[in-house]
Design brief:
single chain; 139 residues; alpha+beta; Immunoglobulin-like; three-stranded antiparallel sheet; 1 helix; 25% helix; rod-shaped
Length: 139
C-alpha cells in the first residue's frame, strides 16, 4: 500500500449460533512494539452474520470490516481482531499492513546525479572544441 491509499480489513468468525450479541475489537501491533494496542471496537454487533444450517449444530459466519482511509506510515503493522461471543473470545490470525515509503528523495537524488553527469559531458565537449580550434591558431 502507498501513503494516501484506502483499505478495508476483514475479520471472519465461524461459530455456533447463540442468542447473545457480538462485541468486536481491533488491535494493531506496530513494528518494534511488544504488545498490540486497541484501536477500534464494535459494541453489540450481530447484524453482519449469516446463519448456515447443515448437518450437526447450526453455525453462523460473521464478517466484520475495519475501513482505513488516507493511510500513512503510522498505520503500518499487524492488525488483529477479537470477537467476544457466546461466552468466549475468538482471536483472528492477524493481517499485516505494509505502507511503502514514498521514494521522492531517491528520485531527486537521481535527477541531481543525472544533471551533474550532463554538465560534466558538456564541459568535456567544450574543452575538446576549444583545444581543437585553438591549436591551429597557435601555429
Amino acid at each position: 500500500m502507498q501513503p494516501g491509499d484506502s483499505v478495508t480489513l476483514q475479520c471472519s468468525v465461524h461459530t455456533e449460533t447463540c442468542a447473545g450479541e457480538h462485541s468486536v475489537y481491533w488491535f494493531r501491533q506496530a513494528s518494534g512494539e511488544s504488545l498490540p494496542g486497541i484501536i477500534y471496537t464494535h459494541g453489540n454487533r450481530s447484524d453482519q452474520c449469516e446463519r448456515s444450517s447443515g448437518a450437526g449444530s447450526p453455525t453462523q459466519s460473521c464478517v466484520y470490516k475495519l475501513p482505513k482511509r488516507n493511510l500513512s506510515r503510522s498505520d503500518a503493522g499487524t492488525y488483529y481482531c477479537a470477537v467476544a461471543t457466546c461466552g468466549e473470545i475468538l482471536f483472528g490470525n492477524g493481517t499485516v499492513l505494509d505502507i511503502a515509503e514514498n521514494d521522492y528523495k531517491m528520485q531527486v537524488g537521481v535527477l541531481v546525479l543525472l544533471s551533474v553527469i550532463r554538465t560534466g559531458v558538456l564541459l568535456c565537449m567544450l574543452l575538446i572544441c576549444v583545444l581543437f580550434y585553438c591549436k591551429p591558431m597557435s601555429c
